[in-house]
Amino acid sequence: MVQMIFKKSQLPLDFRDLEPCQHVFDDRRSTADVPRNSEEAERIAAIVVKLYRQGVRNPEQLKTMVQAARGLFENQPAQAA
Question: What's the DSSP call for residue 14?
C-alpha cells in the first residue's frame, strides 16, 4: 500500500482553524473599509488562509502580516537613533 505524507499546509482547515482566520479577516477587512463581497475581500481572505497554513497562528502577528502583504502600513515618522 502506498503511504501518503501530507504537510500540515495540505490538510483541510477545520472549525478550530477557521475561527481565528475569520476573526483576522473581519478585522483587516473592516479596518481597511473593504466591502465584504469584493475582490479585495477575497484577496484578504486568501492571504489570511495562506499565512495560517504556513504556520502563522498568533492572531496579532497574522493581522500584521496580512496588513503588510496588502501594503497598508501607514507612513510612520522615523524614530531617532
Answer: -
